[in-house]
Every structure is written in C-alpha cells, then in structure tokens.
Write a structure and sequence with these properties.
mainly alpha; single chain; 7 helices; 3-stranded antiparallel beta sheet; 219 residues; elongated
C-alpha cells in the first residue's frame, strides 16, 4: 500500500499484516470471509493512516511506523462484534526507492566516518597501552645493573634506544645530587648537629649517588 509522505512528492510503502478473529466460527469459514472482506479492510486502514503519514518527511519511515502501530495497536474492526469476523493490523513502513537512493550517500558517508572513528579509538588505546608497557620495561631495566648488556640481546635497535633513554635520564641526575649536597651542607653550616633530619638528607644523597654511579662525578 502506498500513502503520500509530507509534501506529497514521495510515498511511503506500507506492508500491512491483518489478524482476523471470530467466535464460534470454523477456520475455513473465517478464512473465506476474511478474503471477501479484505478490500474493505484495506480501505479502513488507508483511511486511518493517510493523514498521519502526511505529517512525516519521506525519509522518516521508521518514525511513521512506530506512530502508526501505537495508534492502531489496540483497534479492531468492525468495532462492534457481531456475525462478521474482526481484524486488527500490524504495519511495517519503508521509504520508496527514490528516497532510498537519495539516502544511500548519506549512510555510506556516515558508516565510513563511524568506522574511521572506531579505528582511531582502537589505535589510540593500543598506542597508550604500548607506551605504558615500554615505559615499565625501560624503568625496570634501568634499575637492574646488568641491563646494559641484557638489552643488547634484544637487538641492536632496542639496545640503542635503551642507551639513549638512560643517558637522558641520567643527564638530570647531577643537578639533583648537587641540590641534596647543598641541603646537607646547609644544615651542617647551621650547626644543627646529627639530627634525624640532617641524617635523612645525607642518606638520601648517598643512596642516590650509589644508584647512579655518581659518587666520584659530582663535586
């Protein structure tokens, strides 16, 4: 069944399922009567749906389908039960082919954009996970005194990257060591004595120097 959409330039395609019921009537008789009443039933449905269909744009078939079924779901004809069987309907709505062709480029572009967006999110998650893992690996290797040799076993490229990483990290160590030494010296100059605070600074300094092999490098 075709009914005009808003603007009357395009139509909606309606697929109507009729559900016939009757009391105390054999199935064969119900089937025969339903077939005879079908043209009348179609006219009833068309009369009920045509005004509502004209309120919807041609590409809003799904919205119209939902609205029609909400309106017609609990209605039955004839409204007074008598000798005739009654029917109810369930309607499915599709846009006509001309509208489908116009919608196709829109949906193709939308699908492409959504797929690209999902791929970008996957790449971002993978890059973040990989970065975190390599960060953990490099920190663990840096804390191990045999890692400089072990890194070479993983390949020349990895060994070179690891060497540059350690050198860059250690480049900032002397400044921190100087700061710790000045803190310890400052407390000594103030004649604070071997307080727990001064001893803690001194312990931090010696531990940091020992970890980074800078006991003889920083004066």
């Amino acid at each position: 069944m075709l009914v005009p959409a808003k603007g009357d330039a395009f139509d909606f395609c309606l697929y109507v399922a009729y559900l016939w019921t009757a009391s105390n009537m054999p199935f064969e008789e119900l089937q025969m009567r339903a077939e005879g009443l079908l043209p009348w039933a179609r006219s009833i449905v068309r009369e009920r749906v045509i005004d509502l269909a004209r309120e919807y744009e041609p590409h809003r078939a799904h919205d119209l389908e939902r609205a029609l079924n909400n309106v017609l779901m609990h209605q039955r004809w004839p409204q007074e039960q008598g000798q005739l069987p009654q029917f109810g309907v369930r309607i499915r709505v599709s846009p006509e082919d001309r509208v489908r062709e116009r919608l196709r480029p829109y949906w193709e572009e939308r699908i492409r954009l959504e797929c690209d967006h999902e791929l970008q999110k996957i790449r971002a998650r993978q890059a973040d996970e990989l970065t975190r893992r390599w960060g953990t690996v490099l920190r663990d290797l840096e804390d191990d005194p045999v890692t400089a040799h072990a890194a070479a076993l993983a390949g020349e490229q990895f060994a070179d990257i690891f060497r540059r990483y350690v050198e860059e990290r250690r480049g900032s160590v002397p400044d921190l060591v100087r700061l710790l030494r000045e803190a310890v010296k400052g407390h000594s100059d103030l004649a604070l004595g071997p307080s727990e605070y001064t001893q803690a600074w001194d312990l931090a300094l010696r531990t940091y120097e020992r970890q980074h092999g800078l006991s003889e490098q920083v004066n």
